[in-house]
């Protein structure tokens, strides 16, 4: 499905909808080039899950984690852009972080991709006029959840 996101308010509303459906074990795979809005959407999801205050971009740290009670469920926000090989995702302990968390992944292809996982919600963001649009492909686990 395609979702028009003409401004930041639309991005916030979209992030809130995703946050309301998010469960441990899920992946939200955020595709799109530099400036497409991946971090903006991740920030909207993290805020809707309860986090107050800044959400640093993980572009340098690669992984930022958020834990209850500040958020409704454990969360990993990752930006895999700087990985040179998918194996590096394991070297930084991705599987460990994911044990009981949901994963918001920017540049998911740099970590090998997650679309084969039934719990993956694939979102491809692109610039559309002054705003953005998203092509959304829900994995099997998401299909029954989407209202
Ligand atoms: P990415 O993480 O994909 O590189 P960012 O989330 O950092 O991109 O967003 C880049 C810029 O795009 C930011 O200045 C942000 O405010 C703007 N932006 C994000 N989403 C939208 C939108 N739906 N409409 C207009 N501007 C947006
Ligand atoms: Mg980003």
From TrEMBL:
It comes from the Bacteria. Signal peptide: none annotated. InterPro entries: P-loop_NTPase (IPR027417), T6A_TsaE (IPR003442). GO terms for cellular component: cytoplasm. It holds the Pfam family TsaE. GO terms for biological process: tRNA threonylcarbamoyladenosine modification. Gene3D superfamilies: P-loop containing nucleotide triphosphate hydrolases (3.40.50.300). It is found in: Cytoplasm. This is tRNA threonylcarbamoyladenosine biosynthesis protein TsaE.
């Amino acid at each position: 499905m395609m979702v028009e996101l003409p401004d930041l308010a639309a991005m916030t509303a979209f992030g809130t909808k995703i946050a309301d459906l998010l469960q441990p074990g899920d992946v939200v795979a955020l595709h799109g080039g530099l400036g497409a809005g991946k971090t903006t959407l991740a920030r909207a999801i993290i805020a809707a899950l309860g986090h107050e205050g800044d959400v640093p971009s993980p572009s340098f740290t690669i992984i930022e984690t958020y834990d209850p009670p500040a958020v409704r469920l454990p969360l990993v926000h990752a930006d895999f852009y700087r990985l040179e090989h998918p194996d590096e995702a394991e070297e930084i302990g991705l599987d460990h972080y994911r044990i009981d968390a949901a994963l918001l992944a920017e540049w998911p292809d740099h970590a090998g991709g997650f679309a084969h996982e039934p719990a993956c919600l694939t979102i491809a963001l692109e610039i559309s006029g002054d705003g953005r649009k998203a092509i959304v492909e829900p994995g099997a686990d998401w299909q029954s959840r989407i209202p």
